[in-house]
Fold:
Amino acid sequence: MALFLLISGSSLEPRQSSLRCTLVTVFFTSSLIFAAYSAAFTSFLAVFRVKLPFDSFRTLYSQTDYKVGSLRGTAYDDVFRVSVAA
Structure:
């Protein structure tokens, strides 16, 4: 079947086994390279990277463009207060 895919649309019919092995090797190698390229390109397009304008709680606290919403007395509120105070 792989040989049929290799020669479809071509009048060349390889009769020697070394030529057939070479064509099959080229076919599978090119298929592997194409699959690897397609997978890498798809994963590159699928990942969405967000660049935040702050890198720590302290810079978030010093900027006035953003507000942090948390309930008072919760663990999140304690973590935020402790990290900003340090």
Remarks:
- The chain has a mean pLDDT of 78.
- The chain has two domains: 18-49, 50-86.
